From TrEMBL:
Bias type Low complexity, positions: 198-207
Organism the protein comes from: Cyprinus carpio carpio
Region annotated Disordered, chain positions: 189-234
Annotated protein name in UniProt: Uncharacterized protein
Length: 245
């Protein structure tokens, strides 16, 4: 069942027309200010959807693959607007169509659907595509007359700011935690043993004709601290402790 939005905060919570550069919020602002006026409790059409003004065209409220219709059945025809590539859409103001050639965030996905009783709008809905042929029923909402009147009293900049349209929070992953363990005073210099690389030591194996015999130094940190003793032979020098294989 399609819910009704009566307040700005409810519209904001749906995330309709966001993030930038999607055009749905600007389209809704245009509709509220240029395409509808109010007489008593009625919404008078200031454009002619049946004639294709501003890219309006007939909307067939057909059954989807699950046997459901997007909108309730009505005795009045539905018309949809918002496809920036439709004939007549070039008459929309620049602030609506300025990102026409931008594909980022599916910028041309938002729509307004109206039911029209000759020159009166009976209902107004916002929705968005979830693929090229179908609309998302979970992103479809009725816009109340009161909410349209609230939007009319705002500037475009104020409306977009209230909706958080220009806000963008970039996710920054946390920095890795580096545990620094200081060297204990009883440790001695690690043992070094020279080892010749073999073909089994490399993850990127080479043919025998291209392998080299470079020597690398293997560090053994398991040497235990020892107390110096007068009875022990003198410590060998670095190169005397190296064994060339």
């Amino acid at each position: 069942m399609v819910g009704t939005l009566n307040e700005l905060v409810q519209l904001s919570n749906t995330r309709f027309g966001r993030p930038r550069p999607r055009h749905g919020l600007r389209l809704l602002y245009w509709f509220a200010n240029e395409c509808v006026s109010f007489e008593n409790s009625n919404m008078l059409s200031e454009c002619d959807p049946a004639e294709g003004d501003f890219g309006f065209h007939y909307f067939e409220n057909r059954y989807d693959q699950y046997g459901n219709k997007l909108l309730p059945d009505e005795e009045f025809p539905y018309y949809v607007v918002g496809n920036l590539n439709s004939p007549g859409a070039e008459d929309l103001p620049d602030y609506v169509s300025e990102d026409k050639y931008t594909d980022e965030h599916n910028s041309n996905t938002d729509r307004i659907i109206v039911s029209l009783d000759e020159e009166w709008f009976h209902q107004v809905y916002v929705t968005q595509h979830h693929d090229r042929s179908n609309y998302d029923p979970h992103a479809t909402h009725r816009i109340s007359r009161g909410l349209l009147m609230i939007i009319r009293r705002m500037s475009l900049e104020g409306f977009l700011e209230k909706m958080g349209y220009n806000s963008y929070i970039e996710y920054v992953p946390p920095m890795p935690v580096i545990n620094y363990r200081p060297q204990t005073p009883n440790t001695v210099s690690p043992d070094f043993t020279a080892v010749t690389a073999s073909s089994s030591d490399s993850s990127d194996s080479e043919s025998p004709t291209t392998q080299n015999s470079d020597t690398r130094i293997q560090i053994d940190d398991d040497t235990l601290a020892q107390e110096p003793s007068k009875n022990l032979p003198s410590t060998k020098g670095f190169w005397e402790r190296c064994t060339i294989l």
